[in-house]
Amino acid sequence: MQNVQPEMPAMRPETPEDKARRKQERRENFWYSVRDNTPLVLFVIPGVIWMLFFFYIPVFANVVAFKDFQFNPNGFIASLQSSPWVGFNNFKFLFSSNAAWLITRNTVLYNLGFISLNLIISVFFAIVMSQLRNKRLTKVYQTSMLLPYFLSWVIISYFVYAFLSPSQGLLNSLLTGNGGKAISWYNAPKYWPFILLLVGTWKGIGYNSILYFASAMGIDPTLFEAAEIDGANKWQQIKNVTIPALVPLMTLMTILAIGNIFRADFGLFYQVPQNSGSLYNVTSVLDTYIYNGLTSTGDIGMSSAAALYQSLVGFVLLMISNFIVRRIDSDSALF
Amino acid sequence: MWHKKEISTVEIRSFGRGANVFFNILVALFAISCLLPLIFIIVISLSSEHSLVTNGYQFWPSQWSTAGYEYLSKMSGQLMNALGVTVLVTVLGTAINATFTSTYAYSISRSSFKYRRFFTIFCLITMLFTPGMVANYIVMTNLLQLKDTIWALILPMAVSPFNIIVMRTFFKRQVNESIIEAARIDGASEMRIFIQIVLPLAVPGIATISLFAALGYWNDWFNALLYIQNTHLVPLQYLLMQIQSNIEMLSQNATQGAQYASGLANIPKEATQMAMVVISVAPIALSYPFFQKYFVRGLTIGGVKE
After folding, report:
1. Does domain A89-332 sit in CATH 1.10.3720.10?
2. How many whole angstroms separate alpha carbon A154 and alpha carbon A270?
3. Is residue B48 part of a domain?
4. What's the pLDDT tens digit per position in B240-280?
5. Residue ranges of the ABC transmembrane type-1 domain (chain B) (predicted)?
6. Side-chain half-sphere of B281: how many Cα atoms within 13 Å?
7. Angle at B162 between CA B157 and CA B164, to 5 degrees
């Protein structure tokens, strides 16, 4: 074997011509790359513009949380310039009021309720549906259960109203028909935590259970055969085969939901109680508070402080939950 | 023979006969509870105003009537206008959303695209943080000055970063880079490659994101709540919302002819209101059993990350 020495290029000092040629080559390469990439850049441009106006600029517009913001008809820059800085005053006002604690508590507690109810009920239905003998009937069930998921909160609030309307609602008819007293539902805060949890969970069960169902149907049937041969009964099969197979998805869904625990479904909390003032103690969440501040009370400063508070805590929670997901199962992580 | 084998694998993970009946009833009860409110609303819309006023909402009214729908058909003006706005926004918005989302996703799915990483991260960042309602409102009204325009109903949902990421994965899996390379060597332009080669391969994915977009636009009332005051731009869902808080709007919206025809006093307000709900639900309720297939596929479409 002969050792082949690679021939070293002669090292000579770079002449000005070399430099010019290199520059020329680089320029040509640059233009080639631009020519090759232009159509694909054009493809992303609409999306980029949208993200600028609906994400990147609004993110910076969050500086209004540190200003006494006044709208100036001359446009955004003028508004920003004419509004004086107030430092953390908006946040001080927000956190010295009772509202901050109330809306944070409501948002987090309701979301914890939704997370646990959703998990238990949808996994239950998913497992049950995966074991039903008649597959066609199972499909019919799934189609029905998915209906509420596809409807808007306005429609759902009409549904709720049909049952809860103080004068014509079905529940009051039943109550008075049996000798009870009618309840003015939209002025009775004590029932609403239950109603909101019920309606919110009901709307999402179809979607979530289909998600788990798809996962349960993907389990290798030989596992069940093996369990059967080993003499496992149905419940033991579910406990030792089905549920362990669903655990990764359950973990992922729960952790992602915890990352969103600071975000409430505006439609559920605004539309379903019909924005009734006497229910605010139990229906006020971060999103409805921000909306009401923005529109009716007109206190943009405090509202924007609440919005920034929500976004920042939400961001931190998302980062933490993603970090945890990545530790458990890196394929399921968001990034 | 094959058929027989299939059944035997189904049996292995199925309940015994007794348990099967029990759980069937349980699931059926919940499934019915999902349909029941809609059926209830349909019944109310078909009840006579007299029975609604005297007996309240009932599953079996003392008197049936189609007066609500008749009144609705006589109403022109704002109802037809709202329906028109909703249809326009849904069609235009879905087209824009599907186009922008899939072109962006396609670009960042191409490994030969030099700025792929940059634009992927540019999109991913938008999913980590929410700018918040107030900031979006200020940019929309003060910077873009789009308050009270049709664009205020379309643009906020015109691109979906999450769907971009989902579609990127879909393109990567569905469209083989070597086909694109071959087409490029044959001299096809990027535009032509996208339209003639990539799009036909990506139909299931595009159908899914279009579906989500269409549902989102049809069901949207939030953007109208924030940005729309002009009565000519009110979409159906927002009109329903306004009627809910002020049922008298129904009589204000009636044309003169309709008012004389039925007499102001006995407008079937309750039934008409519910008839409007039925009409706004009908397109979804009638079509979703058919597109459910795409929807369920959409749940798993972005499941594989690369």
Report:
1. yes
2. 10
3. yes
4. 999 888 776 776 655 544 554 445 556 788 888 899 999 99
5. 83-285
6. 27
7. 90
Q: pLDDT tens across A251-301, in order?
A: 888 888 888 899 999 999 999 998 888 899 999 999 999 998 888 776 788
Q: Which of residues 24-63 of B touch A (CB under 8 A)?
A: 24, 26-28, 30-35, 37-38, 40-41, 44, 52-53, 55-59
Tokens of B150: 């049709």
Q: Where are the alpha helices (DSSP H) in B175-248?
A: 177-185, 190-192, 199-201, 203-219, 222-227, 236-245
Virtual CA dihedral for B199, B200, B205, B210, nearest 10 degrees?
70
Can you give the CATH number for the domain in which B97 is found? 1.10.3720.10
Q: Are residues B170 and B213 in the same domain?
A: yes
Whether B237 maps to a domain, the answer reads no
Residue B236 lies in a domain: no
* B136 and B20 housed in the same domain: no
> What gap in Å lies between CA B202 and CA B197, rounded to an integer?
9
The complex's ipTM? 0.87
Residues B97, A251 contacting (CB under 8 angstroms): no
Q: What are phi and psi of B91, to 5 degrees?
A: -65, -50
The residue ranking higher by pLDDT, B151 or B77, is B151
CB contact under 8 A, A144 and B143: no
Interchain contact, B132 vs A148, CB within 8 Å:
no
Regarding whether B142 and B22 lie in a shared domain, the answer is no
Same domain, B220 and B197: yes
- CA of A281 to nearest chain B CA: how many angstroms apart? 21
B111 and B133 housed in the same domain: yes
Domain range annotation of chain A: 89-332
Measured CA distances, B228 to A28, A61, A137, B85 (Å)? 52, 22, 44, 12
Look at the block and give the residue holding tokens 């000798």. Answer: A179
Q: In angstroms, what CA-CA distances link B159 with A42, B134, B174, B249?
A: 15, 20, 22, 34
Quickly state the pLDDT bin for A3 (edges 50, 70, 90). Answer: low
Residue B98: exposure state from Cβ atoms within 10 A (0-12, 13-18, ≥19): buried
Does residue B158 carry a pLDDT above 60?
yes
Indicate the length of chain B as a whole number.
Answer: 306
- What proportions of chain B, in percent to the nearest 5, are helix, strand and coil? 75, 0, 25
- Domain for residue B235, yes or no? no
| Residue A323, phi-psi category: left (phi > 0), alpha (psi -120 to 50), beta (remainder) | alpha
Paired tokens of A164: 């809860």
Domain count, chain B: 2
Q: How close does chain A come to B122, measured CA to CA in Å? A: 8
